[in-house]
Amino acid sequence: MAFMEKPSAGKLLLDDTVPLTAVIETSQSLQSHTEYIIRVQRGVSTENSWTVIRRYSDFDMLNNSLLISGLNLPLPPKKLIGNMDREFIAERQKGLQAYLNFLTQHHILSSCELVKKFLDTNNYSANYTEIALQQVSMFFRSDPKWEVVEPLKDIGWRLRKRYFLVKNKEQPKERQVLSWVDLGPDKFLSDKDLQSTVKLLPSLAHPYICPVTFAFTSESSALVIRTFNEKGTLRDHICKVKPKEQFLKKYCNPKKIQGLELQQIRTYGRQILEALKFLHDKGFPYGHLHASNVLIEDNACKLLDIENSLLGLPSYYRPYVTQFRKVNTTESIDVYSFGHLLYEMTYGRPPDAVPVDQYPSAPYTSVVSVLQSILSTEACKSGMPTVPQLLQTPLFSDVLLFNSEKPQFKITSKLKDALKSSKECLEKRLQEEQRAIHQHRRLTRAQSHHGSEEEKKRRKILARKKSRQSAYENEEDFSVKYNNNSGGLYMITLFCYSFRRGPVTPLPPPPPPPPPPSGSVPGPPSLHPPSVNGEGRGALLSSIQTFSKGRLKKAETNDRSNPHI
């Protein structure tokens, strides 16, 4: 079975979860319209930045496409008359900047293909639906028992993943869902090990993991088929939406949301933790837990997309995870993601921001204590509980599970070693990204503090203190030099006084002091620096003897000694 090569329209291993920031640097007015120059940056590195030029009509077109989300998007209104005035353009630029900030900071909209293409056309110019159809068609030619029923347009959040409702011609009434996806930046298994591991997925059996019907990988992409569930995912159940609707429409601003009852929270939570523990014990990395990756079937939760970590796909919560250096393993990612999921099951919506230290009023205090152990500031900084520790909490420890299916998943020791090595590489890349973000955050804080008014005042006061201290030290140095050279100053003054009365013969130097009497206690050492071979005094006498009167300027004397009458 051979897949067609993927067109080189974009970077194959680009991490789509790395957030983009967009700043409108300036605007330029032409005869008929105004263009806005936007500086876009991926991640924290300024080297990974570029500019795009957009008109207001481009913003308006994007906004119309995003209205399906049901959100109240803050796009500045249109203006037909006076839209070329300088003041209006400046005000509109501020409004468009606020609009971009809203899009890039919204967890779902920021990863939307429409927004990505608006800000980064070069990397997102490919038509992934067409690419997926081509490769799925190639697969059906090699295995003709499968047939496409209908494409499931944009039901997921990944840009490079497409879904199709398919059926097996031998079982025409049973619907299956086929997913096609590009390999991601965390793909560290060799092609051979990846194919061997993916082929084992249909043999995995667990009561709380959704079974895989068929799985196959090529050099650049993967294809997985599993049973389609008409009732949808856990998030569909919470938001009261239909599974086949578009992701933006379903989850951006759901009209009817409802948290689960306590018994459902306990049961579903226990089932999910049991599935995570099974995968961790097998050394199988997951890291992709969220409410849209949990199916509800016969009052039981089943994990979806267990192949994602093998294919190198970044986590749904990666933009959050990169902010916390304690969440640096696939196991800790699963625990952190479970905290988000538990919050959503309790309140019917995801948390607005993490860490979470203030919780809305909830009837279940036992749930809040578990949430605090995972999502609080202290937990994010110091560390979170493990999956076995969560299973021992009062919320889940006494939940009875009734299921006779025996879990099984046989992995060879060679593949276990390959999975372990791949997991270590995945975690290393995460830790490097966390370190870079941490350093960038520290630098940003330092620059912000350095430029604050309070810091400027403090630096001015410090500079004044240093200036005063320096002046005081200079005065002390001058005083010491004056005392040390008082003899020389006396001779110069005497000479100048005598010069006014006429030339005089220089006075002989004073005689040296008499030696101290024998046996007496020596006095303190002289403060005057010793002259070397009389060089200092000789230089002074030479300058006096070679003095020329012609070099002096004539001075006028104003005699005011006479008394005033």
UniProtKB/TrEMBL annotation:
One of its GO terms (cellular component) is late endosome. It comes from the Eukaryota. One of its GO terms (molecular function) is protein kinase activity. Keywords: Actin-binding, Cell membrane, Cytoplasm, Membrane. It is found in: Cell membrane; Cytoplasm. SMART domains: PX, S_TKc. Residues 439-448, 457-468 have a biased composition (Basic residues). Residues 149-443 form the Protein kinase domain. Its main location: membrane. Residues 439-475, 506-565 are annotated as: Disordered. Pfam families: Pkinase (PF00069), PX (PF00787), WH2 (PF02205). Residues 536-555 form the WH2 domain. It is a peripheral membrane protein. InterPro entries: Kinase-like_dom_sf (IPR011009), MONaKA_PX (IPR037903), Prot_kinase_dom (IPR000719), PX_dom (IPR001683), PX_dom_sf (IPR036871), SortingNexin/PXDomain-PKLike (IPR051837), WH2_dom (IPR003124). GO terms for biological process: early endosome to late endosome transport; endosome to lysosome transport; negative regulation of monoatomic ion transport; protein targeting to lysosome. Belongs to the protein kinase superfamily. Binds to and modulates brain Na,K-ATPase subunits ATP1B1 and ATP1B3 and may thereby participate in the regulation of electrical excitability and synaptic transmission. May not display kinase activity. This is PX domain-containing protein kinase-like protein.
